[in-house]
Amino acid sequence: MGDNSFEGTSIIREKFIPYLKVSKLCETSNCSDTGTPTAGIILSNGSVITFQRRINSAGCTHTRLIAGTSVPICAVINVNTNGFKPPNKSGEDIFQFWMTPNSIIPTGLQGDSEFDYCKRGIDGYGCAAWVIYNENMDYLHCNDLSWEGKTKCN
Fold this sequence. Notes:
The chain has one domain. It is 12% helix and 26% strand. The protein is α+β, with helices and mostly antiparallel strands. The protein contains two helices and eight strands. The protein has a six-stranded antiparallel beta sheet with strand order 1-2-3-6-7-8. Strands 4-5 form a two-stranded antiparallel ribbon. The protein has helices spanning 6-16, 128-134, and strands spanning 22-26, 40-43, 48-53, 62-66, 69-73, 75-80, 94-99, 104-106.
């Protein structure tokens, strides 16, 4: 699938285009403020999706321990739900997903160490699964939430 270059991430992007309502393709780093030449898509609702290869992951050889299972990661998908509007912060309007050879997994699932980053005052990279499964963003307001216990601030 290529490398962590624009060409490599474009290959991944092309696989998604037929299934999305695409407004515009990002042809350079204009979908990402990382400075990395990342391929992206701007959807008709204004959301922005960018694709990144994992460093040293050609052939999906990079693995993550998720819920006690070693999972091969091919790429990272970042979804900015409100496009270029602020706050442009992970865990608030930007959510990250792992792309495996057979699925897309939201970061921060129970047993995924990325959930450690889904705490108030931390960078928010591991919050996608929490929002999907618990249907809230209470982690922005309290620090005592967990998959095994309290899932809402109130």
